[in-house]
Amino acid sequence: MTLLRLDGVHASYGEAQVLHDISISVARGERVAILGRNGVGKTTVVNACLGIARLRKGTIAFAGQTASAIRHFTAARAGIAVVPQGRRIVPGLTVRENLLLGAAVGRSGRWSFETVCELFPILRERADTPGTAMSGGQQQMLAIGRALMANPDLLVLDEPSEGLAPVIVDELGETLVGLAAGETSILLIEQNFSLVHRVAERYYVMSKGAVVEEGRLEGLSRESLKKHVAV
Ligand SMILES: Nc1ncnc2c1ncn2[C@@H]1O[C@H](COP(=O)(O)OP(=O)(O)OP(=O)(O)O)[C@@H](O)[C@H]1O
Question: Where is the ABC transporter domain (predicted)?
């Protein structure tokens, strides 16, 4: 069953149109990647879903609701949680407090402080230290844990591998595959081919605000991507 569907989406910031006729879907429990170089509009796909970029044409539907009903402040309540680029750990708050922010939306499900700490034990060990005092990899776990605390149906990750050592990226890949096995759909925005390869079942490649290639991961080679993505 389709969870998220964008059909013929044109989206803009003010007068500047960024997305041109984008059609993308994510099924329940599916792991989908959006690839493409810097500035091609990957984050804007998410921003269009959240009502941050303006939908000029086309439709966006999530779990049977049209996008006009989903706005930034209600997306988490509708079941979309975003792990933003750069992680955005809130300075001055402890690890525990950062996690609890994610739960503020009030959706129930399998994720709580306890279950998130079972997934990422370091978050329990560091629960009372400032979130921003942790390493990059640990902050990424915190950002993912915070998003899970909202018990989302769709977890969107915007360049989660940025700044992480390859071994940490491999661990992250395993975690994300495990989450989808638990029925959380994954939309992974990435330039790191090896993470995409490990996690995604289907992919879309974007260039200049449009989808220029799509398919199943088995059909995606490093060579075919070189012209669109940093590998
Ligand atoms: N809030 C905004 N207001 C105006 N223009 C924006 C805004 N956010 C992004 N843009 C512009 O939209 C275009 C697409 O940006 P977007 O962030 O979606 O790309 P991206 O593929 O996610 O790249 P990156 O990996 O660098 O984040 C860029 O030209 C960018 O400058």
Answer: 4-231
Distance CA 124, CA 108 (A): 21
Residue 65 has pLDDT above 60, yes or no: yes
In a domain, 198, yes or no: yes
Atom of ligand 1 minimally distant from the CA of 52: 1
Is the ipTM of this structure higher than 0.90? yes
Residue nearest to atom 9 of ligand 1 (CA): 44
Find the 133 Cα to ligand 1 centroid distance in Å: 28
* Per-residue model confidence (pLDDT) at position 71: 64
Q: Is residue 83 in a domain? A: no
Q: Quick one: tokens of 47?
A: 């921003």
Q: Which atom of ligand 1 is nearest to the CA of 37?
A: 21
* Separation of alpha carbons 150 and 186, rounded Å: 14
Question: Which range marks the domain in which residue 25 is found?
Answer: 1-78+186-231
- Is it the case that residue 231 has pLDDT exceeding 60? no
Closest CA to 189 of 162, 223, 209: 162
Which residues, judged by CB distance below 6 Å to any ligand atom, belong to the binding site of ligand 1? 13, 16, 18, 36, 38-44, 85
Q: Which of 198, 201, 225 is nearest to 213 (CA)?
A: 225
Total of domains in the chain: 1
